[in-house]
Specification:
The structure is a homodimer of 207-residue chains. By secondary structure, chain A is α/β, with parallel strands linked by helices. In chain A, 34% of the residues lie in helices and 20% in strands.
Chain lengths: 207, 207
């Protein structure tokens, strides 16, 4: 099945600014994209990266450049052909097993909820479906499918749910990741700190 | 399979104090416990609640009172008999399907990671395993199993991963819950607010 992976190559992961500078955010975003593509390469999905800008980094998938807003780009991809999977590029814990379950689930639309109301992946089998990635997208996607009479299934996956947007999300990568993103964070000095409160990812000064 | 559900009946869910008073925290904790027991009742697990204090609320499972620390209580339950499941009481999104996958996974120890480094459920099939629920318990549980030569599997479940400790966690209940906990929050005035930032659960004043 065809899969598109939208990627912001222009100003990726801005909400990580408290802990990563712009160059680091770009490098880390590419690490996550490569982890996602590595999982996809061991799945039944055939990925194409839809990037907002040309990519110079080495990427193991075709890249199409399209700088329009996300919904416009995905709408065109759905109109082109279904079934289509849409997989976010910031899922460093993604596994071939989770993708296999996503592939196998029945439904005109299959949704993978992200923490905080997002939609981290979907499979669209009917071109009547319209995406709406703004706001509480999981709720809007359920409603959009229902409004045009489509069946909806949701996959129950921690790994598909773990998108990385904010500094607090980095803990999950250190705890559960074994790919390039986890290695990148470790080499950048991030460690798990366990004090009296909740554990968190903190950055130690390097020598 | 026998399942124990540790429950703090004394001062439950203290980190929800910014949005719920003590009486409300107790009521909401019982709602979550009942949602967990409802999912268990449609699974192959046979639940017993291990409560820190006697329970007057109506609960559809046997209750044993034991006010010792969590690790001591669970250690005794493991010593008594294995296989044993340990399922946290604050998982309002739990489904029979997620429990079915937990039941089916092979491994001397099967772990369900929670957000933030916790261990929200486990199946223990070898009494050599020792729990350690303090700190980053998922990491400690992996190590404890490995140290005594046990195999470890982990289940990939958003719903098993979604324990409710802090006000930010309530959004997930409103978005994905269809049980008593979601209804309780709605009746207490909680709604999903979508402003310019991330969506969150906010409490509206009631008349």
């Amino acid at each position: 099945m065809r899969a598109v992976i939208p990627f912001d190559a222009t100003t990726p992961k801005r909400r990580l600014a408290p802990v990563l500078d712009a160059e680091e955010r770009t490098a880390f975003a590419f690490s996550m994209l490569r982890d996602v593509l590595a999982a996809l390469s061991r799945s039944r999905f055939d990925p194409t990266v839809l990037s907002t800008a040309p990519i110079s980094d080495s990427i193991a998938a075709p890249v199409h450049v399209d700088d329009r807003p996300l919904d416009a780009v995905v709408t065109d991809a759905i109109a082109e052909d279904v079934p289509l999977a849409v997989v976010m590029a910031d899922l460093p814990l993604l596994t071939p097993e989770a993708l296999g379950r996503l592939y196998e689930l029945d439904g005109d639309v299959v949704l993978a909820p992200g923490r905080g109301g997002g939609t981290n992946a979907m499979v669209v089998r009917d071109s009547a479906f319209a995406t709406d990635y703004h706001g509480v997208s999981i709720r809007d996607h359920r409603r959009n499918a229902r409004d045009v009479g489509l069946t909806v299934a949701e996959i129950d996956s921690f790994r598909l749910g773990a998108d990385v947007d904010e500094p607090a999300d980095l803990l999950e990568v250190l705890l559960h990741g074994d790919g390039e993103s986890a290695a990148w964070l470790a080499s950048a000095g991030f460690r798990i700190e366990t004090g009296s409160g909740r554990p968190k990812a903190v950055r130690r000064d390097r020598d």
